[in-house]
Amino acid sequence: MIFPDYHLHSEFSADCETNISNIITTAKEKGFTSICLTDHYDMDFPVLPEVPDITFELDYEAYYATLSKLRDTLLPDFDLRIGIELGVTDKNIAHVTEFAKAHSEYDFFIASSHIIDDMDPYYPSYFKGKTEIQAYRRYFESILYNVTHFKDYNVYGHLDYILRYGPNQADNFDIKDYRDIFEEIFKIIVYDGKGIEINTGSLYKNMAFPHPHSDILKMYKAAGGEIITVGSDAHYTKHIGYGFDVARDILLEHGFKYYTTFSKQKPTFVSII
Q: How far, CA to CA in Å, does 238 sit from each of 30, 85, 204, 242, 250?
């Protein structure tokens, strides 16, 4: 089985130069019949000392026009869905809510946390002056704030993104240090009818597991979570669908019987077996 890849980036993302046509061609060659493009839109992206010239704005009108025109040429043999990965922070929730409500034409919205306290944990500067537990807890607390106040998304992306970049990654990760936060996060996500993703991007970044960590995924399932998409977070064609066999095994191991696709933000549940 090949899941449709629901986390992909193209030349429309500030951190990617991959041509959309090459993405489609490669996806077809790998056996995909459907994917969802989810280019970055991090509104009000702060100026970071490490990269003062970069922003994660998105020309969303040109993006949608390009993809919708391409989608029409691909049907019925290939089903291209159009999504956005929305970077959410405590400072841009009003802006991102307004945008999402105004753009119901999109198939899919990922909510993601890339910035916390005006810093990106991609850079070591985020961890200065913090213990690893303090740094991780602060990141997870920000997700709790976001899901409490932002409701116009479909799944929350790479919930433990920060583990990619921590001083010891997940070597010292113990769910007991964060259980209280995730209990609240999942209570809200499940109540709101939202989901999470299995993000295999960590596997080609030398981590032993896809996001989220197995213990976090167990908590989501125990909380009644059923909505789950599978995405590679690919910025290069070679990573499209990377590790999806691992994702399938993990989902089945944790009792998930379905993965989810979205059209105009309405979920469809598809049997994994």
A: 10, 20, 10, 8, 22
pLDDT of residue 226: 97
Q: Note down the domain range covering 107.
A: 5-271
* CB proximity list for 186: less than 8 A, separation 6 or greater: 219, 220, 223, 225
Give the DSSP letter of residue 236: S
Please, are residues 95 and 43 in contact by the beta-carbon 8 Å criterion? yes
pTM of the model: 0.96
Q: Give the C-alpha separation, 239 to 22, whole Å.
A: 12
- What DSSP string describes 180-224? HHHHHHHHHHHHTT-EEEEEGGGGGGT-SSPBSPHHHHHHHHHTT
Residue 8 host element (H or E)? strand 5-8
The CATH number assigned to the domain holding 114 equals 3.20.20.140
Q: Tell me how far apart the 2 most distant CA atoms of the chain are, in Å.
A: 54
Total count of domains within the chain: 1
CA angle 168, 137, 186 (to 5 degrees): 115
pLDDT single digits (tens) 39-98: 999 998 887 888 877 888 999 999 999 999 999 999 999 999 999 999 999 999 999 999
Q: Give the pLDDT score at 222.
A: 98
Strand boundaries in 75-217, DSSP class E: 79-87, 108-112, 155-156, 195-199
